[in-house]
Design brief:
The chain has 327 residues and is α/β, with parallel strands linked by helices. It contains 12 helices and 9 strands. The protein is 46% helix and 15% strand.
Length: 327
């Protein structure tokens, strides 16, 4: 069975609070650990009322204390927002707290709009141009290869697993050149998935950390007792994506029966396009959809995304998904 991992954006639901969202994330991580998922990742987003994981390293410490064996990590840290030394210290601290369990996925996007750059006192367009150099510097701060004049403490010698994240050919090319595992964000940006994986595998150069290409692809996965129930649960996600694409993002809304059918044809087509990498339905439906996706991509791991308005429904979804694939 292909390894499964979890991506959680720490969604804040309509009528809920950030404290509840963080508590729900810890509960979801415990469920993922109990069900046998390999990793639990959170992603850096800023200035979004419906996402509570902006302080990513702090959030991971919270999740680490709620779990004991599952790998935890950033999927990812948007490195242009930061300097490599501070990230080395933060994730070195996480490794000291939770030895051998920390993943550090690195992305080039800012994770928000241009106002965030002003708030962070960063020229994000220019900072993104230095992303390859910053990745090399950050890795060197942790591994000592090459040796730098200043060591990060904590950080130096930490047993971090580095990843490159992407949704385009740029990240695939960089991951291949640096001999790093590669995670593709196909759950919301599926267009370049096949080309990026092909390029990554063809150009991969072995490194001390990785001797062969390793691809993790993201899918939106919601499993319920029936196809109809899963479709209803997924309507909360659909509402969020439509709101985001129309410039009106907010908190996660309750499910709406027949939501997609109520939308104009062009909006339905947009949702169908972005949900190419998805598996929504009863266990048999999800098993078949994930099987087709793995056969298409040859992915070494799948990371499942997808929020539900009722946190218990996503915990149940994780358990059903693992059971479906194991069976």
């Amino acid at each position: 069975m292909i390894p499964l991992s979890v991506l959680d954006l720490i969604p804040v639901r309509e009528g809920g609070t950030i404290s509840e969202a963080l508590a729900n994330a810890a509960s979801l991580a415990r469920e993922a650990e109990a069900a046998g998922y390999k990793r639990f990742w959170v992603a850096e987003h800023h200035g979004m009322d419906g996402i509570a994981g902006g302080a990513t390293a702090v959030t991971l410490a919270h999740i680490g204390h709620a779990t004991s064996t599952i790998r935890i990590g950033a999927g990812g840290i948007m490195l242009p927002n930061h300097n490599p030394f501070v990230i080395a210290e933060q994730f070195g601290t996480l490794d000291a707290l939770f030895p051998g369990r920390i993943d550090l996925g690195l992305g080039r996007a800012p994770g928000a709009d241009s106002r965030i750059g002003q708030a962070l006192r960063k020229d994000l367009m220019r900072a993104s141009e230095y992303f390859p150099q910053d990745v090399v510097e950050l890795r060197a701060l942790v591994t000592g290869d090459p040796e730098l004049a200043l060591r990060a403490t904590p950080g130096f010698g930490a047993a971090l697993e580095f990843w490159i994240l992407g949704s385009s050919l740029f990240g695939a090319s960089l991951a291949a050149a640096l001999g790093m595992p590669y995670a593709f964000a196909s759950h919301f940006a599926p267009d370049h998935l096949d080309a990026a994986i092909k390029l990554y595998r063809e150009r991969f150069t072995p490194s001390p950390a990785l001797d062969r290409p390793h691809v993790m692809a993201a899918m939106t996965v919601l499993t319920a007792e029936s196809d109809a129930e899963a479709t209803l649960l997924a309507s909360s996600l659909d509402q969020s994506f439509v709101a985001l694409r129309t410039g009106n993002p907010g908190r996660l809304k309750p499910p709406v029966p027949g939501y997609r059918e109520s939308l104009p044809p062009h909006t339905q087509a947009m949702l169908e396009h972005v949900r190419q990498a998805s598996a929504v339905g009863a266990p048999a439906t999800v098993r078949a959809a994930i099987g087709r996706f793995v056969e298409r991509t040859g992915a070494d791991e799948i990371i499942v995304a997808g929020a539900t308005y009722d946190p218990a429904a996503r915990e149940h979804s994780l358990a059903l998904t693992m059971e479906a694939l194991a069976g």
